[in-house]
Write a structure and sequence with these properties.
The chain has eight helices and ten strands. By secondary structure, the protein is α+β, with helices and mostly antiparallel strands. The protein folds into two domains: 121 residues, MutM-like, N-terminal (N-terminal domain of MutM-like DNA repair proteins), CATH 3.20.190; 101 residues, Helicase, Ruva Protein, domain 3 (Orthogonal Bundle).
Length: 246
């Protein structure tokens, strides 16, 4: 499976950006891509300190003084990187935030916008998100109710991908969590017990927290050949082990 941005990736990126920017006024801000050329972000953010960098699910927020917030969602192909300032840049760089000898770059992705803090609080794309699987106040009991809200016939894998139920789990961790509990990803969620769902959430929360600190690390399998096929209305690719997940 090719790596793609999920909740652990976004929390990992938020930590890296926070180390460079939190409490600091960026030395320079640039929006190299033409799509943002007329938005005047460098002028609007000039002289403003970054108050916080945080994440919720797959969404990242860089919060500036004056209630202005950069909101990013990387989709399946975007990325954040932190590196030495002045290194050559590719054509996909949308945003540059430089401080000292380092710069934070956002490359690609469907969503990069400058919003007011009020807009962030009321935007339905954000307000309708479920609890963050990596959040300090994650409520597993409430998450179970949300996972079952789509109906008993929905597959457990599709429920795990629903960001309104639990924010942060993407295609990779959907597959990893089902594998961890030896659950067929196509099993209807009505046939999955609360105990099994709790085990899935506990695994995702524990392992994604490690990945958010250290980066994603692939784990060995039983040796059986992994199979895959499209699943759900979006035809997202699901991977499973026929030896472990009967």
């Amino acid at each position: 499976m090719a790596a793609m941005p999920e909740g652990d990736t976004i929390h990992f990126a938020a930590s890296a950006l926070r180390a460079v920017l939190a409490g600091q006024v960026p030395d320079a801000i640039a929006t190299p891509q033409r799509r943002h050329a007329m938005d005047r972000w460098p002028e609007r953010l000039a002289g403003r300190a970054v108050q916080a960098v945080d994440a919720h699910g797959k969404h990242l927020f860089v919060r500036f003084e004056g209630d202005l917030v950069i909101h990013s969602h990387l989709g399946m192909t975007g990325s954040w990187i932190v590196r030495r300032a002045g290194a050559p840049r590719g054509g996909r760089v949308w945003l540059v935030l430089r401080r000292g000898g380092q710069e934070c770059l956002e490359l690609g992705g469907p969503t990069l916008e400058l919003l007011t803090a009020q807009r962030v609080r009321t935007d339905p794309r954000i307000a309708q998100l479920g609890p963050d699987i990596l959040g300090d106040e994650f409520d597993a009991k409430a998450a179970l109710v949300r996972l079952r809200a789509g109906g008993p016939e929905r597959s457990v894998a599709e429920a795990l991908l629903d960001q309104r139920a639990v924010a942060g789990v993407g295609n990779i961790w959907k597959c990893e969590t089902c594998f961890s509990a030896a659950i067929d990803p196509w099993r209807p969620i009505g046939a999955v017990s609360d105990g099994e769902l709790r085990a899935l959430l506990e695994f995702a929360r524990r392992e994604m927290a490690v990945s958010a600190r250290e980066g994603f690390i692939a784990r060995p399998r039983c040796g059986a050949r992994i199979r895959s096929r499209g699943q759900g209305d979006a035809d997202r690719r699901t991977y499973w082990c026929p030896g472990c997940q009967q």
